[in-house]
Amino acid sequence: MSSTGISAVGDAAAETRLRRWRMVLGGDGDGTGCVLSGRDVGMDAALSALYGGGGAPKSGGERSGGLGGSAPNVARWLGDIRTYFPSSVVQVMQRDAIERLGLSALLLEPEMLEAVEPDVHLVGTLLSLNKVMPETTRETARSVVRKVVEQLEKRLASRTRATLTGALDRSARTGRPRHADIDWDRTIRANLKNYLPEYKTVVPERLVGYGRAAQAVKKEVVLCIDQSGSMAASVVYASVFGAVLASMRSIATRLVVFDTAVVDLTDQLDDPVDVLFGTQLGGGTDINRALAYCQSKITRPADTVVVLISDLYEGGIRNEMLGRVAAMKASGVEFVTLLALSDEGAPAYDREHAAALAALGAPAFACTPDLFPEVMAAALEKRPLPTP
Question: What kind and span of H or E run contains 174?
Answer without folding.
Answer: strand 173-174
